[in-house]
């Protein structure tokens, strides 16, 4: 109870430490979600609409990516960006660029996988008929994404959920540096370890609130289609 | 002199156990060419070849000066966009009727001529449905929307794959009247697959009977129905199961 009241107090105060962490979290998650959406939706649509020789292998790889332990992805990104790694010259390790990279790798298979499943539900006859009306393959694919918009929205929400709550990979590649790479999840771990349960609870509540509000906004954007009656 | 639309020579498309073969056939602008024949005769395959949605194995198609053959069967976009098909089962976007009808114009980045569209939807009796979602339409209404969306961009070739197969006489009449009027006014080449030879008699200028991928007979409406040349055509018209 003491921790809870301490957390409320912290939330009501305008503490730059807290707002900095919220800011870094939103920036990192926003950028990672943007990149993973830009990769995941076209990839999922391509896999959902086309057939090619290596499709089962690519699909299996995608499904593996959807269930891949984030901390292993963190390890992979750490090695890539470490001073002896192939991309060490970029100097991204312990910077938000490394966190964004890791989170993008975590989220894009989720977005691509759910998008693929959603696009596969679109009536093939519709795609055929749109092409017969003069739609190019790209225009037909875009129409398919719009037809599968509810599923695609779920895909983005899944990607968002996968990265906003991520801690292992972020800790590994970001280093939890105050004012630089400390995000809500890594701050919760740190404050809990230090026995500052009130602060940890406050960060937890903020994380919950952000997740809820982000999901609510996405649902509102598509509420007409999500809750439409036939 | 009628303007040629398609000139077809030695066209062949093979599937396992089936081959469509058309030795020589010309299709003309302003003509409604009806295709009759049993299921599996190759009518839909022929339509898909005319819409360039499938590539033949052999032969040549000349379309308004463009020559197409196996290996070169992808027309330029502007040519492709002059040809369209209305299918037996209309598939519409999960949008309202207006958005479905204007879709072909939007993808062509063409200006939406509201009056022109309103004329078409009025003719088809779907003017009151424009704001309605496509999933609330009956089969007949959906097919009329599908025809409207095919006509708004004034195609030079209109391919109809049994568009009235599952419709009641009221809807059939509306669609027949609309296509006939469009053919008279805009002079497209119309190829119309139907299982109903009474329908082909009502709307067709030339009638073609197909069986097992072969053309049995092509003749003008009067000759085909009143003085058919082939025994199979006579059997077909008299209601015998010739196949």
Could you give the topology of this structure?
The complex is a heterodimer of chains A (230) and B (243).
Chain A (H helix, E strand, L loop, with lengths): L1 H11 L3 H34 L5 H12 L3 H12 L14 H25 L3 H9 L4 H11 L1 H16 L3 H7 L9 H10 L3 H25 L1 H4 L4
Helix pairs in contact in A: 1-11, 2-5, 2-8, 3-5, 4-5, 4-9, 5-8, 5-9, 6-7, 8-11, 10-11
Chain B lengths: L3 E12 L2 E11 L3 E5 L6 H8 L7 E6 L2 E3 L8 H4 L2 E4 L10 H11 L6 H10 L15 H13 L5 E5 L7 H18 L2 E5 L3 H7 L2 E6 L2 E7 H6 L4 H7 L6
Parallel strand pairs in B: 3-8, 3-9, 6-7, 7-8
Antiparallel strand pairs in B: 1-2, 1-4, 4-5, 9-10
Can you walk through the features of this model?
- The complex is a heterodimer of chains A (230) and B (243).
- With 230 residues, chain A is mainly alpha-helical.
- Chain A is 77% helix and 0% strand.
- Chain A contains twelve helices and no strands.
- Chain A has helices at residues 2-12, 16-49, 55-66, 70-81, 96-120, 124-132, 137-147, 149-164, 168-174, 184-193, 197-221, 223-226.
- Chain B has one domain (4-92, 155-237): P-loop containing nucleotide triphosphate hydrolases (Rossmann fold).
- The relative contact order of chain B is 0.17.
- The model of chain B has no long low-confidence stretch (mean pLDDT 93).
- Chains A and B meet through helix 6 and helix 7 of A and helix 3 and helix 5 of B.
